[in-house]
Amino acid sequence: MSKRWKCTVCGYLHEGPQPPESCPLCGAGRDQFIPLEAEKVNLLRDMIDSFLLHPVAAHFPNALLPTAFLFLLVTVTTGSPYFEHAVFFLLCTAVGVVPVSITSGIYDWRTRFDGVRAGIFYKKIFLASLLLLLGLSAVLIRTAHPGVMHEGGGLKWAFKAILLTMVLTTVLLGHYGAKLAYQWKKKKP
Q1: 141, 162 Cβ separation under 8 angstroms
Q2: pTM for the full model?
């Protein structure tokens, strides 16, 4: 008798007596499928049950810092103080979230990965710490010199370089995070 199965990772629906060996869409294993009739349609409960703080906290800087850098380029191009103020507020918000990202990342590392000693975790901790230090430096520069983007000189270029380095750091953090999040997709030979 044919049954309907749902992949709990991506939502793919499969019809057959058994779930497939792996999901054809996301690669999740057979154990990630549930009989469709067993699923309760309760979005809020599902969100509460599957909520993970670290991915949420990590994506804030990943979104805000490229936006801040884009606004920085608009500031340089137009000279608009409004975009420069937006850069500062986006930067402050991103820097404020980084400690939550670091703390929740270490918690996830210890609970979900049993604190395994692997280079990828040390790289992520180092990069997140670097991101925090760079961010604090940029906030300090901008707080001490509110007109840094209009004053010129070496401090202006240092501020721009710090923001660019922060964007590149978030790209690397995202890369390593994706490697961890999608490691289950690897096909075994």
Answers
A1: yes
A2: 0.72
Q: Tokens 């979005």: give the residue.
A: 43
Helix (H) or strand (E) holding 157: helix 154-181
The CA distance from 3 to 8, in Å, is: 16
Instruction: Retrieve residue 176's tokens.
Output: 């390593």
In single-letter form, the type of residue at position 63 comes to A
Dihedral angle of Cα 56, 58, 59, 63, to the nearest 10 degrees: 140
Neighbours of 121 (CB within 10 A): 19
| Cα dihedral across residues 16, 20, 26, 28: positive or negative | positive
- What tens digit of pLDDT does each residue of 163-179 get? 999 999 999 999 998 88
Q: Which of 180, 167, 145 is CA-nearest to residue 72?
A: 167
Which residues pair with residue 7 across a beta bridge?
33
* Amino acid letter, residue 134: L
Q: Are 93 and 68 in contact (CB under 8 A)?
A: no
CA-wise closest residue to 101 among 15, 176, 46, 186? 176
Q: What is the pLDDT of residues 17-26, one digit of tens each?
A: 999 999 998 8
